[in-house]
C-alpha cells in the first residue's frame, strides 16, 4: 500500500472523530441571557448611536449575537467577554449610577478608545461595523468634554473642605478599626509617610491627585526598574476636590478617596500581579460590593498592560 493511501486511511477516521467532537461541543453553551433593561444610557442621538454600535454587544443587556458568535468554541469566549464587559460597564443599568460615576465611566471609556484598547481588535475583526472612525472618536471626546464644567470653587465647596478639616484635625483621622477592602486588602495609613512621586488631575470631575510610593517604589524609580515594577512596590493615589480661584490657582479641597496598588506577581497573579483597593470619604468606606470589584480596576488599567498596568509615570528629578 502506498504512503498516500495509508495517509488517507488515517485521515478519514481522524476527520470523522474531529467532526463528531465539533458537533458534540455545540450542545455545550455557557449561559448568556439578556436581562431586562432597567435604566438605559441617555445621550444625544449622535453619541448614543456610536455607543450602541461599538459597545452594546459586550456592555449592555442588549447583546446581539450573530450566527458565528453562537458556534462553539467561539461562543464560550463570547460569553466570557460579555460577562466581563457587563461587570465593568453596563449601559442597560446606566441610570443606577450616580451622576459623578456616570461621568467617570464615560471618561474611562473614551480614554480606553483613545488608547486603542476598546473596542477589542478581536471583536472588530469579525464585527467591522463596530470600528470607530476618527470622526466617531471626536464626537465622543467632545461629548465627554462638554460634561466637565468646573467653575471657580463656590463658597459651599470651600466650606465643605473647611468643615472636613475641622472634623479631622482633633483625631488626625486615625480609624478605630482598620477598614478592609472586599478582597482582603487593609487600609494602609502609613502612605502619608511615603514619597510623592507624581501628580495628576481629572478635569472631568474636578479632582486633583497625588501619587505616593513606598520605599520599594522609590528605589525602583532610582534604579530605573519600573517595567515591570518589583514585588513589594506599593502606590497610594490620594484624591481631593480641586478648588480653583478666579485666577486659576488651585489647592486641595475635601478629601475624596485613596486608592492602592500593591505589587506581588504571585499573590495577585489572578489580578495582573497587583492587589487593588479603594477607600472613599474620610470614613474610609471600602469600595466594591465583593472581591469582583477588581474586574473594574483591571478593565480601567488594561490599556497600560505594556506598562505593567500603571498609568501615572513618576516625575523626573
From TrEMBL:
In terms of Pfam families, this protein maps to: Cytochrome_P460, Haem_bd
User: What does the record give under GO molecular function?
Assistant: electron transfer activity; heme binding
Domain named Haem-binding: which ranges? 19-148
Q: Which SUPFAM superfamilies match?
A: Cytochrome c (SSF46626)
What is the top-level taxon of the source organism?
Answer: Bacteria
Annotated protein name in UniProt: Cytochrome P460
Origin species: Hymenobacter crusticola
Amino acid at each position: 500500500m502506498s504512503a498516500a493511501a495509508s495517509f488517507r486511511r488515517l485521515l478519514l477516521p481522524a476527520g470523522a472523530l474531529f467532526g463528531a467532537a465539533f458537533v458534540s461541543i455545540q450542545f455545550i453553551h455557557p449561559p448568556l441571557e439578556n436581562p431586562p433593561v432597567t435604566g438605559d444610557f441617555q445621550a444625544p442621538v449622535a453619541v448614543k448611536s456610536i455607543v450602541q454600535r461599538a459597545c452594546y454587544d459586550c456592555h449592555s443587556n442588549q447583546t446581539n449575537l450573530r450566527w458565528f458568535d453562537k458556534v462553539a468554541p467561539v461562543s464560550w469566549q463570547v460569553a466570557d467577554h460579555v460577562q466581563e464587559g457587563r461587570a465593568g460597564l453596563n449601559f442597560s443599568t446606566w441610570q443606577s449610577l450616580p451622576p459623578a460615576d456616570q461621568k467617570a465611566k464615560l471618561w474611562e471609556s473614551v480614554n480606553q478608545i483613545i488608547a486603542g484598547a476598546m473596542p477589542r481588535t478581536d471583536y472588530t475583526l469579525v464585527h467591522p461595523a463596530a470600528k470607530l472612525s476618527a470622526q466617531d472618536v471626536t464626537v465622543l471626546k467632545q461629548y465627554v468634554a462638554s460634561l466637565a464644567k468646573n467653575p471657580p470653587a463656590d463658597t459651599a465647596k470651600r466650606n465643605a473642605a473647611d468643615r472636613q478639616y475641622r472634623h479631622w484635625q482633633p483625631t488626625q483621622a486615625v480609624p478605630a478599626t482598620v477598614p478592609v477592602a472586599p478582597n482582603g486588602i487593609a487600609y494602609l495609613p502609613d502612605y502619608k509617610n511615603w514619597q510623592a512621586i507624581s501628580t495628576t488631575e481629572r478635569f472631568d470631575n474636578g479632582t486633583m491627585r497625588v501619587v505616593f510610593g513606598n520605599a520599594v517604589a522609590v528605589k525602583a524609580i532610582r534604579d530605573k526598574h519600573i517595567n515591570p515594577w518589583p514585588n513589594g512596590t506599593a502606590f497610594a493615589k490620594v484624591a481631593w476636590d480641586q478648588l480653583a480661584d478666579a485666577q486659576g490657582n488651585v489647592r486641595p479641597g475635601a478629601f475624596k478617596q485613596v486608592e492602592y496598588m500593591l505589587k506581588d506577581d504571585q499573590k495577585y497573579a489572578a489580578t495582573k500581579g497587583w492587589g487593588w483597593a479603594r477607600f472613599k470619604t474620610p470614613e474610609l468606606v471600602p469600595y466594591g460590593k465583593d472581591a469582583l470589584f477588581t474586574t473594574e480596576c483591571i478593565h480601567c488599567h488594561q490599556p497600560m498592560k505594556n506598562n505593567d498596568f500603571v498609568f501615572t509615570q513618576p516625575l523626573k528629578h
